[in-house]
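User: Last request for today: this protein with NG1, please.
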Amino acid sequence: MASVNIDNLNSLSNLHPKPENTFAYGTAGFRMKAELLDSVIFRTGILASLRSKKLDGKVIGVMITASHNPAADNGVKVVDPLGEMMEGAWESHATALANAPSNEHLFDAIHTMVSTLKIDLTKPANVVFGRDTRPSGEALVAALVDGLKVLGAQSTDYGILTTPQLHYITRCLNTAGTPEAYGEPSAEGYYKKLAAAFKILVEGKPRLSPLILDCANGVGAPKFKEMLPYLGDSFSVKIVNDDVEDASKLNLNTQQRAPIGLKTAAGERYASFDGDADRIVYYYQDEDNTFKLLDGDKIAGLAAMYIIDLVKSAGIDDISVGVVQTAYANGASTQYLRNTLNVPVSCVPTGVKHLHHEALKYDVGVYFEANGHGTVLFSPSALKTIYAAEGSSPAQAVAIRSLRALSEVINQTVGDAFSDLFLVETILTQRQWSPKVWDQAYTDLPNRLVKVVVQDRSIFKTVDAERKLTEPAGLQDAIDAIVLKFSHGRSFVRPSGTEDVVRVYAEAATRPETDELAFRIGGLVFDYNSCGSGARPREFI
Ligand code: NG1
Ligand code: ZN
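Assistant: Here's the final one, the structure of the complex with NG1:
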């Protein structure tokens, strides 16, 4: 069996020494302070090469970004051939390579993978990569390029991209020339595809007022501007927070409030991207000056309502629509989906891969996290039905054309803030709705997220899509006893996958009750078997 050239590995690896730290490839890939990432990204280059070889030379994507984290952080994620997140079983291999303490151990870790996974090293390796606007990205790309040299991968640097663009390009490259060809593998191809579909979707409808779009001073700003010429007069937007030169401004947004420096006014429509443009939320200001958030749950509700209607209008009766949420979905949204729209709703653990996987079970699967990450997946059979349908009336033909365009405007690989923006704008334009009308579908229950810093979050074990704790023993019973006292009360506790904390979610009938519930559960967790770390937060009850 072919082997890795050890001299080549040693000389490249010596340029990227591993610090003492221990690394873990989690739901968001590797993510931490940028200065710790050099060796991790070098080794991710090796991992991506192995993944490509294992998949017979299919193109693997690598994205360097830390999404909504502060500018000083960075991270890396590996993208599978059809643009999905890397197969879960490979996360432990990524972790093993990242933690090998010496060049010799790294050599051994690579060979362990080669033999256990039966990787043929003589196969070609093809990798494409991109990065967001973080200043640390350039040096990290150099580390990745060195990693790609270890196994002689062919690679293409796509420069600065949004995360979903890199996913799109990866899928395009692997499907080119097949019946599933996804588009031209470039940012330009992506703009053309989305813009053409959006134009069809809003054809003949009066334009809405301009959208005020906050780009969090991240990569969404230059990329959305790049897209504008392709949209022509189909869409009007005012971009704010587009300063990507001053890194300190990246992701300065706060939760459940308008972004810093943005003065909102009644009658306007706003949206915010996160730092790598894979998440979006909408908001507006009510006449009485209250800030109203239209989050991922609201987008899921709007999309499901619209798609169900469109399928009906198209005269197609054999396409099932389903929605996938996590435990963080507002209880009122779940009720609305189940009881008003009568659509099946599944609840899965946090993490896009769980949502994506579950959504594939429906003909049309709508999935969204409350924080605005999500998309709509059309199954191959649903697409076949939609493309075969002809319609027996002009109205049916229009609905069929819209369904086809919808499947093109919505990124099928991963949650995409651009796609989701065009999805929402399509529906609001078709219906001529203001954000306020959209918001009237249901009223969110007040909710609150609280972080509890604990000594060891790994002692918290959950079941039932993270809604129940099995360990520490007895804690769930104590939580249930408190929740029972609150009208419409719901609360759950789970360890974060991306931060060293335990998260408490609470919702209840009123704002004061919600806050009380969140802080009582926070206090309970902090005190339980002395789990908490540091000073007990003063707001905990
Ligand atoms: P954790 O830290 O595991 O709660 C957070 C988000 C997820 C997801 C991941 C990946 C919440 C409560 N959690 O996960 O939804 O976006 O980050 O970035 O928003
Ligand atoms: Zn993101």
